[in-house]
């Protein structure tokens, strides 16, 4: 194992230094919580009776305090394919707990919305703030002070970050994330993308498009493209918060069940009554957060995590920003290409060596911290550099060996590109993120007149009318956290992709999000400060020359903005529950800090 890369070491040291005070306050909090945690045996009999009344066959064990009681926070619903497998999990987890003298109770549930269902719809404006709601729901679930550990059942976009943020406020307890795995592969990603573009051009019918989409998203399990959901699973592995190798094993398999069983047994062993106490708040330290960022960069993961990582880190008293992410990107090579960055999906990625291969390469090159605490039996990341399998009825881990597909996984010494493909752009239009790993290098620089829009629907109308057939920078503003909750603008990808395929130089600039489905069109996203309240994007006018350059890290306009009056802030719209989130919009901080109302108002 190599010495730690100097850039990784320097960024870790900088994060540790700037987080010194906030991290100390956080550790003091969870130490107090640990010291003050009530002994259940001394609690009011009335309190205990309320807690045990529904426990059925576990009631005697709970009454007599026979072993640790594990609280499950679940995001089950059967509309969201990734979370539908959780339907039977409580029953199974209770059985696994009894095997080691423990008990399991479902502490509570959280909402779990699907960005795939709400893409282009008004419900998407609730998406980012659902993370705050999930964190608060997690806090409510764990507030009963009945638990010695946590099992967190979640996979998708805002759900894992929300669960982690909420659980970190109970960081004196051990915790393990329990994914359910990806659905089997369906229609090829290349075919799916082609039909989407044909539909955008009016050359495919709605029925043909729906058949194509159903061929891709077809059964329980996570969507198989490498978006935010699967990037979540990658990060939980690199932070040591999964049973090693749990990320991409499909639902309903014997291996999946064995990994779930191991998660219950491990969290029962990590509580304060045992000799291997590992509270979540100590596991999620500066090194674990840096590992998450390194993994994001090395695998070309979702741009949404440029927002989620700062928010998750803040919940543990750790301060990170896009400068940290961009500097790490300069040193971390891209070792994986998974759709939309490559042709194969996460099932192909897993079969080719998956997370075990990636983690082994990063550790071998000194690009990840090997000494995070984690939840594996041996502390540190070494167990995560292997892959799980079955040995009889039990789990066994084996060495991964070489990449099984050089078009998908490459060694750190011979990567797809030498940097991690997440670049910080800066200039007189603000700070933004650019996912260069998804864009051909020849398209990293676009300088053209802009056309300014306030909704993605306006862009679609202009495209259909033929008004965008030229070299153009499409600006979609008033899409930030305080304006409308910072929705994903993934519906822009097909029309902008068509323009690019027609030979035009095209780029997108927005204070909104584009997600892990960010594709081949160059995009400066998450622009901060946002347009609402007079941010630089509010000063742009149609025809201004805008430069987007990932080579030089530039986001600027040649127009003189200082004498201009900002475009008026749009009035917040109601309907689809958006009015219920007015408080979140009013209190939200900037995207670079995580776009959170809850963390901002808590002073974290």
UniProtKB/TrEMBL annotation:
<keyword id="KW-0311">Gluconate utilization</keyword>
<keyword id="KW-0411">Iron-sulfur</keyword>
<feature type="domain" description="Dihydroxy-acid/6-phosphogluconate dehydratase N-terminal">
    <location>
        <begin position="68"/>
        <end position="378"/>
    </location>
</feature>
<dbReference type="Pfam" id="PF00920">
    <property type="entry name" value="ILVD_EDD_N"/>
</dbReference>
<feature type="binding site">
    <location>
        <position position="156"/>
    </location>
    <ligand>
        <name>[4Fe-4S] cluster</name>
    </ligand>
</feature>
<feature type="domain" description="Dihydroxy-acid/6-phosphogluconate dehydratase C-terminal">
    <location>
        <begin position="408"/>
        <end position="594"/>
    </location>
</feature>
<dbReference type="GO" id="GO:0004456">
    <property type="term" value="F:phosphogluconate dehydratase activity"/>
</dbReference>
<comment type="similarity">
    <text>Belongs to the IlvD/Edd family.</text>
</comment>
<dbReference type="InterPro" id="IPR056740">
    <property type="entry name" value="ILV_EDD_C"/>
</dbReference>
<feature type="region of interest" description="Disordered">
    <location>
        <begin position="556"/>
        <end position="575"/>
    </location>
</feature>
<dbReference type="InterPro" id="IPR004786">
    <property type="entry name" value="6-phosphgluc_deHydtase"/>
</dbReference>
<keyword id="KW-0479">Metal-binding</keyword>
<keyword id="KW-0004">4Fe-4S</keyword>
<comment type="pathway">
    <text>Carbohydrate metabolism; Entner-Doudoroff pathway.</text>
</comment>
<comment type="function">
    <text>Catalyzes the dehydration of 6-phospho-D-gluconate to 2-dehydro-3-deoxy-6-phospho-D-gluconate.</text>
</comment>
<dbReference type="GO" id="GO:0019521">
    <property type="term" value="P:D-gluconate metabolic process"/>
</dbReference>
<dbReference type="InterPro" id="IPR000581">
    <property type="entry name" value="ILV_EDD_N"/>
</dbReference>
<keyword id="KW-0408">Iron</keyword>
<dbReference type="Pfam" id="PF24877">
    <property type="entry name" value="ILV_EDD_C"/>
</dbReference>
<dbReference type="GO" id="GO:0005829">
    <property type="term" value="C:cytosol"/>
</dbReference>
<protein>
    <recommendedName>
        <fullName>Phosphogluconate dehydratase</fullName>
        <ecNumber>4.2.1.12</ecNumber>
    </recommendedName>
</protein>
<keyword id="KW-0456">Lyase</keyword>
<dbReference type="GO" id="GO:0009255">
    <property type="term" value="P:Entner-Doudoroff pathway through 6-phosphogluconate"/>
</dbReference>
<dbReference type="GO" id="GO:0046872">
    <property type="term" value="F:metal ion binding"/>
</dbReference>
<dbReference type="InterPro" id="IPR037237">
    <property type="entry name" value="IlvD/EDD_N"/>
</dbReference>
<dbReference type="GO" id="GO:0051539">
    <property type="term" value="F:4 iron, 4 sulfur cluster binding"/>
</dbReference>
<dbReference type="InterPro" id="IPR020558">
    <property type="entry name" value="DiOHA_6PGluconate_deHydtase_CS"/>
</dbReference>
<keyword id="KW-0119">Carbohydrate metabolism</keyword>
<feature type="binding site">
    <location>
        <position position="223"/>
    </location>
    <ligand>
        <name>[4Fe-4S] cluster</name>
    </ligand>
</feature>
<feature type="compositionally biased region" description="Polar residues">
    <location>
        <begin position="556"/>
        <end position="565"/>
    </location>
</feature>
<dbReference type="InterPro" id="IPR042096">
    <property type="entry name" value="Dihydro-acid_dehy_C"/>
</dbReference>
């Amino acid at each position: 194992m190599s010495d730690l890369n100097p850039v990784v070491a320097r960024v870790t040291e900088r994060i540790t230094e700037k987080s010194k005070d906030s991290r100390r306050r956080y550790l003091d909090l969870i130490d107090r919580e640990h010291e003050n945690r009530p002994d259940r045996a001394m609690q009011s009999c009335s309190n205990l009776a309320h807690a045990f009344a529904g426990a059925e066959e576990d009631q005697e064990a709970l009454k007599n305090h026979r072993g640790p009681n594990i609280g499950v926070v679940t995001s089950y619903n059967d509309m969201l394919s990734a979370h539908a497998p959780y339907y039977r999990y409580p029953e199974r987890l209770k059985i696994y707990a009894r095997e080691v003298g423990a008990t399991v109770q479902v502490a509570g549930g959280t909402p779990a919305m699907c960005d795939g269902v709400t893409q282009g719809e008004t419900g998407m404006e609730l998406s980012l703030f659902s993370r705050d709601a999930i964190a608060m729901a997690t806090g409510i679930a764990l507030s009963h002070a009945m638990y010695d550990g946590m099992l967190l059942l979640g996979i998708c976009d805002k759900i894992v970050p929300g669960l982690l943020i909420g659980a970190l406020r109970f960081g004196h307890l051990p915790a393990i994330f329990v994914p359910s795995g990806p659905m089997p592969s369906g229609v090829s990603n290349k075919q799916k993308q082609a039909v989407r573009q044909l539909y955008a051009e009016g050359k495919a019918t709605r029925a043909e498009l729906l058949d194509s989409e159903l061929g891709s998203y077809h059964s329980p399990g996570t969507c198989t493209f490498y978006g935010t959901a699967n990037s979540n699973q990658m990060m939980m592995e690199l932070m040591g918060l999964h049973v090693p190798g749990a990320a991409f094993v499909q639902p309903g398999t014997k291996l999946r069940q064995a990994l779930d069983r191991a998660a219950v047994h491990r969290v029962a062993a990590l509580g304060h009554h045992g000799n291997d106490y590992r509270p979540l708040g100590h596991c999620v330290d500066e090194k674990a957060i840096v590992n998450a960022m390194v993994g994001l960069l090395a695998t070309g993961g979702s741009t949404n995590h440029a927002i989620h990582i700062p928010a998750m880190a803040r919940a543990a008293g750790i301060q990170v920003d896009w400068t940290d992410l961009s500097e790490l990107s300069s040193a971390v090579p891209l070792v994986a290409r998974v759709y939309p960055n490559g042709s194969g999906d996460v099932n192909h990625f897993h079969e080719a060596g998956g997370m075990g291969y990636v983690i082994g390469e990063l550790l071998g090159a000194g690009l990840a911290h090997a000494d995070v605490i984690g939840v594996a039996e041996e502390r540190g990341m070494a167990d995560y550099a292997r892959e799980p399998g079955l040995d009889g009825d039990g789990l066994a881990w084996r060495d991964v060996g070489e990449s099984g597909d050089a078009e998908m996984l490459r060694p750190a010494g011979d990567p797809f590109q030498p940097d991690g493909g997440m670049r910080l752009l800066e200039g007189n239009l603000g700070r933004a993120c650019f996912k260069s790993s998804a864009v051909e290098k020849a398209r990293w620089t676009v300088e053209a007149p802009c056309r300014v829009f306030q909704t993605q629907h306006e862009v679609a109308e202009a495209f259909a009318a033929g008004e965008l057939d030229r070299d153009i920078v499409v600006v979609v503003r008033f899409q930030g956290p305080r304006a409308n909750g910072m929705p994903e603008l993934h519906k822009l990808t097909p029309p902008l992709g068509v323009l690019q395929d027609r030979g035009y130089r095209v780029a997108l600039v927005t204070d909104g999000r584009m997600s892990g489905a960010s594709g081949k069109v160059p995009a400066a996203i998450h622009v901060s400060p946002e347009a609402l309240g007079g941010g630089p994007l509010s000063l742009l006018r149609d025809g201004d020359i805008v430069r987007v350059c990932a080579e030089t890290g530039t986001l600027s306009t040649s127009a003189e903005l200082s004498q201009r009056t900002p475009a008026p802030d749009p009035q917040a719209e109601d309907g689809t529950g958006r009015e219920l989130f007015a408080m979140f919009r009013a209190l939200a901080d900037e995207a670079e800090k995580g776009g959170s109302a809850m963390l901002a108002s808590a002073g974290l």
